[in-house]
Description:
By secondary structure, the chain is of the alpha/beta class. It has a six-stranded parallel sheet, sandwiched between helices. Strands 5-8-7 form a three-stranded mixed sheet. The chain has 15 helices and nine strands. Helix content is 50%, strand content 11%.
Amino acid sequence: MQGISTFKIANKLITGNGATAKLKEEAEALGMKNPLIVTDKILNEIGVVGKLAKYLGGSSFGIYSGVKPEPEAAIVEECTEVFLSGNHDGLIALGGGSAIDIAKAVSGYARFDGRIEELFGTGMVPQKGAPLIAIPTTAGTGSEVTNIAILSDTEAQLKKGIVSDFLLPDTAIVAPEMTVTMPKSVTAASGIDALVHAIEAYISVNASPITDALALGAMKMIAKFLPKAYANPGHMEARENMATASLMAGMAFGNAGVGAVHALAYPLGGRYHIPHGVSNALLLPYVMEWNKIACLEKFRDIADALGQNTSGMSNPEAAAAAVEAMRSLCETVHIPKGLRSFSIPESDIPSMAEDASRITRLLKNNPRVLSLDDIEKIYQTAY
Ligand SMILES: NC(=O)c1ccc[n+]([C@@H]2O[C@H](COP(=O)([O-])OP(=O)(O)OC[C@H]3O[C@@H](n4cnc5c(N)ncnc54)[C@H](O)[C@@H]3O)[C@@H](O)[C@H]2O)c1
Ligand SMILES: [Fe+2]
């Protein structure tokens, strides 16, 4: 029987090649007279910011380009100072998940009278902040449609989330042309992140028919188009499909949640600063090998969506084919394998497992229960 479920995303989605041309109109509709573009140094230097600024016409705006990959809370504080001192009245996030998450956190923090750390957790943001338009340049995190901002807590060496519906962007402009300059490694890592979002949402205990349709659709598109986007950065059909798939996977996991792959990946990001998509990919086949007996039928669907021919296979065979297809897709886009290849000391595994076991916000969505011991074993197999 289907339980009650809520579905929430950004208020408005604008998609398609050239969609950024709508920026001025959308900013005005949200009452922005002097927005702050939140982005990073690389996107500024390679001209992506300039390309976007052109679409703001003669309007007044500011640029904050201090976002770093896997950003820490201090960046939110710095960006908030720029936002407040420049009398900005709106935020335009331009970048990958890192820039979008910073802008989301700034929208929550700018009107909060406390320390940023007090916002970590669920439902701690007291009110809606400045209007926010999110324009992803990776494909991707799906952050343009989710209610979470993920920050690195440098002290705890963990990635932590600010989760609040007040962080849902007002408008997401998903324009594939913004993603063509992505380096190959970012195309691969962010594409695998989107795949993991779709797979984890599909097998989540909170999945609904709505999130299932989005998740399966995204898996099919990623399996077909990620290798093409990786092989040929200018392949616009592939970029279009990846941008849309990432958005769909974001809508799926923003509502059904992600599970153990993300929970086990967080300590890798928090301690060793491994890019988010890569940490997920390092664990994906091993966590899925563990999960599959909990939902064999769903794994058969995943195998089909990833292009495997499962006719004549038993459910366990089809589930094994699904895991193999995930492994093979990661290999095709040259994601490095093995925790050891990142010089992670094997002796860190027990404490990493302890950190991961505390991420109950995600582990509770996972279809198979994991004990501390199980988590340690999975890290060991992934080593
Ligand atoms: N809020 C959410 O719902 C959510 C979901 C998943 C991941 N995340 C978070 O998002 C972050 C990762 O985001 P990401 O994978 O999008 O990468 P990113 O934003 O960290 O960007 C990675 C690198 O790619 C560069 N880059 C991005 N787009 C580019 C482009 N078009 N051309 C050239 N260079 C480009 C950036 O400058 C940066 O150096 C992590 O902190 C992760 O935890 C958030
Ligand atoms: Fe993710």
